[in-house]
Amino acid sequence: MSFLSKTLDRVKPSPTIAVTTLAGELKAKGMDVIGLGAGEPDFDTPQNIKDAAVAAIAAGKTKYTAPDGIPELKQAICDKLKRDNGLEYTPAQISVGTGGKQTLYNAFMATLNEGDEVIIPAPYWVSYPDMVLLGGGTPVAVEATLENNFKITAEQLEAAITPKTKWFIFNSPSNPTGAGYSADELKKLTDVLLKHPHVWIMTDDMYEHLAYDDFKFATPAEVEPKLYDRTLTCNGVSKAYAMTGWRIGYAAGPENVIKAMRKVQSQSTSNPCSISQWAAVEALNGTQHFLPEHNVVFKRRRDMVVDMLNAIDGVTCPTPEGAFYVYPNIAGLIGKTTPKGTVIENDEAFSTALLEDTGVAVVFGAAFGLSPNFRVSYATSDDNLKEACTRIQTFCAALS
């Protein structure tokens, strides 16, 4: 009999972390590696936020806090949701977790029972299905096609809903595609959800402020206020504020669900880092001037990567509305062979050969539930991106 829990048989390690780890190992052996796998801004945390953390340390704000967040941060989150999204919440409706991932995990652990289904548009962030499985639920993937710019339709959502559906998890702009749903596109989905009162909506709005061109971010409860009482609006400070390592995420929703999430967190990690919480207060309440400045850089990088990848025969790379990812399709390369004799049977074989032959680390599409694709994170320097895309072009041109 195995000593380990059978629960672990339901899940697999994060492929994005695995790619980053392998790239690190090759780099340690002396290989010139360019990592395009990590979903992490290369900007430093803004100075005002770091200063707030230092001030919190100096003031002795280093003790335990309430399990799911200090009152000042909960109020800052309420203010942010009102200011940016037109959503009214009270501090009692807010849960603060150790990053966005824990917030989503807490919600699933607090609400899922065996047999409950969770609809997940694919491609999806790699952790969604596994968190559902850990909670005892059943992930139901709905494939968003390249032809529809990686967005599901109202008809697809309607077809996926069953009496067992408990949650629809919604991520826009998306990881891994960067696809963003306009308010009109989102309204078509919320119209479907209005017809099914047993289905709750969990939003992952982590990339809200990373939007380009004319795209305007919208979140479900904002688009359809009638869904407010069965929506959990989740967000965090990791991406927009370059605070990935600070580990602060949050959720806003009905008080009974927030209380249940608090119970889960109180018996697992307890409170998020007190210093990080005070830094997050400043992030949400302080100046936001750097957000458009960062987006100018991200947009420039996006356009360069999209242009260089679309110049490759056999590759199709849509232009995303937000986040800092592109998700090129490589259907035209499947079945080809590298000069070393490796057959590109699928996107995992492509990504592995690309890393081993050129030192460019990307994440294969199967990890996100849609193939044949790979994900590129353009949250790195222009020089790195240009060199990486040049290597990808050379690698693909050598396939036969």
From TrEMBL:
Its cofactor is pyridoxal 5'-phosphate. InterPro entries: Aminotransferase_I/II_large, AspAT/PAT-like, NHTrfase_class1_PyrdxlP-BS, PyrdxlP-dep_Trfase, PyrdxlP-dep_Trfase_major, PyrdxlP-dep_Trfase_small. Gene3D superfamilies: Aspartate Aminotransferase, domain 1, Type I PLP-dependent aspartate aminotransferase-like (Major domain). Transmembrane segments: none annotated. Pfam families: Aminotran_1_2 (PF00155). One of its GO terms (biological process) is amino acid metabolic process. It catalyses: L-aspartate + 2-oxoglutarate = oxaloacetate + L-glutamate. Its EC number is 2.6.1.-. Belongs to the class-I pyridoxal-phosphate-dependent aminotransferase family. PANTHER family: ASPARTATE AMINOTRANSFERASE (PTHR46383). This is Aminotransferase.
